[in-house]
């Protein structure tokens, strides 16, 4: 009987730990990790956030997603790390390639069984003349539910924070768990 109770207690903990995730992916043609370190102290004069046509077409289904809120969070993290400077010659371009936001009802009632909320985007570091010098993909997902984890603000703020955290960690070389390849 004690074993059954342990398993019942362990299941929610495992679910909670696996319900929120984030990754950074580089293709095999991307700069090697030692080359990425060279960009760790690079400053940016601007950050632009664009949406692919597919994402723009899905905005009606994902009305809780705010490109402005995500852009603000990315800029804030860069500023907090001292990576923004008006005199810098590099720019950062973020292109959101996939967005999914569950309805409030589905997130609260069904939790992870309703799938995840996610933001996926390509990040491009542009040098002088907007020439691409580095790029990678960032993905953040959130699948918790219930009254504690299913609230819209909780879910969206977590996604914006995780996406920006992974983006800045990759730029500064602090991302130890980046996956290479697929």
Q: Label the structural class.
A: alpha/beta
Strand order within the widest sheet?
A: 2-3-4-5-1-6
**Contiguous helical run count:** 7
Radius of gyration: 18 Å
> Distance N terminus to C terminus?
42 Å
User: How helix-rich are the residues, as a percent range?
Assistant: 40-55%
| Percentage of residues in DSSP E strands | 25-35%
The name CATH uses for the topology is Double Stranded RNA Binding Domain
- Give the overall shape, derived from the CA principal axes: globular
Search tags:
single chain, 182 residues, alpha/beta, Double Stranded RNA Binding Domain, 7 helices, 6 strands, 27% strand, disordered C terminus
Topology (SSEs and partners):
Layout: H1 2-18, E1 20-26, H2 33-37, E2 44-51, H3 53-58, H4 67-80, E3 90-100, H5 104-110, E4 117-126, E5 132-142, H6 146-149, H7 152-172, E6 179-180
Helix pairs in contact: 4-7
Structural write-up:
Helix 4 packs across helix 7 (152-172). The chain is of the alpha/beta class and 182 residues long. The chain has helices at 2-18, 33-37, 53-58, 67-80, 104-110, 146-149, 152-172; strands at residues 20-26, 44-51, 90-100, 117-126, 132-142, 179-180. The chain is globular. The chain has a 6-stranded mixed sheet. Helices cover 41% and strands 27% of the residues. The protein is built from 7 helices and 6 strands, in the order αβαβααβαββααβ. The model is unreliable at 10-18 and 178-182 (pLDDT under 50). The longest helix is centred in the C-terminal third of the chain and has 21 residues, at 152-172. The chain has one domain (20-180): Double Stranded RNA Binding Domain.
């Amino acid at each position: 009987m004690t074993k059954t109770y342990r398993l019942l207690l362990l299941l929610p903990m495992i679910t909670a730990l696996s319900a929120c995730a984030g990754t950074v992916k580089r293709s095999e043609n991307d700069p090697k990790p030692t080359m990425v370190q060279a960009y760790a102290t690079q400053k940016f004069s601007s950050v632009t956030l664009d949406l692919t046509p597919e994402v723009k077409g899905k905005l009606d289904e994902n009305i809780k997603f705010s490109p402005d809120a995500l852009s603000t969070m990315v800029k804030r993290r860069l500023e907090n790390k001292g990576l923004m400077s008006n005199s810098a010659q590099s720019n950062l371009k973020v292109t959101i390639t996939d967005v999914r936001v569950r309805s409030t009802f589905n997130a609260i009632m069904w939790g992870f069984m309703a799938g995840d909320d996610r933001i996926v985007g390509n990040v491009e570091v542009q040098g002088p003349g907007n020439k691409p010098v580095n790029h990678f993909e960032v993905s953040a997902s959130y699948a918790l539910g219930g009254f504690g984890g299913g609230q819209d603000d909780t879910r969206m703020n977590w996604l914006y924070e995780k996406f920006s955290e992974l983006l800045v960690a990759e730029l500064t070389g602090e991302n130890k768990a980046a996956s290479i390849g697929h």
